[in-house]
Design a protein that fits this description.
The chain is of the alpha+beta class. Helices cover about 40% and strands about 25% of the residues. GO terms for molecular function: metalloendopeptidase activity. Keywords: Membrane, Signal, Transmembrane, Transmembrane helix.
Length: about 290
């Protein structure tokens, strides 16, 4: 145990209370109010200065470390963001590839139905609007436009191709060679079909087109000729009445005349012909889509 004598205790207390006066003099050698500081600060100033320097450098080092860490963290964030963008891009490509892979099944049913329509059109001398090979070279958006354009073409062909009966009656004479209906001997070429009906029954256009003839024509009697697209023409003969004029445009199913027995006829009926590129064709092939 430290045992201090009274005299020594007083000396220690005196040293602790010792102070040093610091006088600061300006350029005019005028003294400014002196400052008293504990003598131990003056005696140990080097230690305090060294401690201050160490604290300063510690703070600078900490700031530099934090700055470097922040930059590294920012760069890491940038790298991570770049990696996420790359992953997102790959996922989008995979999704696109999946859609493309599903496209054949997606359009298969539509293609089958359009192929059936193409078959009907081809049987009537019409070519398909597009080929499947062309579709394979298109993008998804272009494929949608492809089908829209294709369907518009199909609608146009169906509207301008003579399909169906101009009058829903019984066929009494077919296309081609037949016996002379007046002499019942010998033969003659029949250029269309005869459909039995009653005088005054309605006759309708089997396709959209323009009236190129409306009047009396020899053995056809009162007759109407319609010109359609794709090289088609239709003729309606032996009419009792004509309801259109030359130059008129008619729609599918529009009333154009009435059944009669004018011209070379044995009784009320409709003589119906279909022409394709200037040649007579059998109307029977156009009475239905089958």
């Amino acid at each position: 145990m430290l045992n201090l004598q009274p005299a020594n205790r007083k000396g220690l207390m005196r040293r602790r209370k010792e102070k040093t006066t610091i006088i600061i003099v300006n350029e005019q050698k005028n003294a400014i109010q002196p400052i008293e500081v504990p003598s131990k600060f003056v005696v140990n100033w080097k230690k305090y200065a060294l401690a201050a320097v160490l604290v300063f450098f510690s703070m600078v080092t900490s700031i530099i470390y934090l700055t470097i860490s922040r930059n590294e963290l920012y760069e890491s964030g940038q790298v991570l963001a770049s990696q996420l963008e790359a992953v997102q891009s790959e996922m989008q490509e995979m999704a696109t590839d999946t859609v493309k892979a599903e496209e054949p099944d997606r359009y298969a049913e539509i293609d089958n139905k359009l192929s059936t329509i193409n078959k009907f059109l081809k049987a009537r001398g019409l070519k398909p609007a597009f080929s499947d090979q062309k579709k394979k070279e298109l993008t998804e958006e272009e494929i949608d436009n492809y089908y829209k354009e294709y369907l518009n073409k199909v609608i146009f062909n169906l509207a301008h191709t003579p399909i169906g009966f101009p009058y829903p009656g019984h066929i009494t004479s077919t296309f081609g060679h037949r016996e002379n209906p007046f002499t019942f001997s010998g033969g003659e070429r029949h250029k269309g079909i005869d459909i039995k009906g009653n005088t005054g029954d309605p006759v309708r256009a089997t396709a959209q087109g323009r009236v190129t003839f409306a009047g009396y024509r020899g053995g056809y009697g009162k007759c109407i000729v319609l010109k359609h697209a794709n090289g088609f023409e239709t003729l309606y003969g032996h009419l009792s009445r004509i309801n259109v004029d030359e130059g008129d445009r008619v729609k599918v199913g529009e009333l154009i005349g009435r059944i009669g027995s004018t011209g070379r006829s044995t009784g009320p009926h409709l003589h119906y012909e279909v022409h394709r590129n200037g040649k007579f064709v059998n109307p029977k092939g156009y009475l239905s889509l089958n």
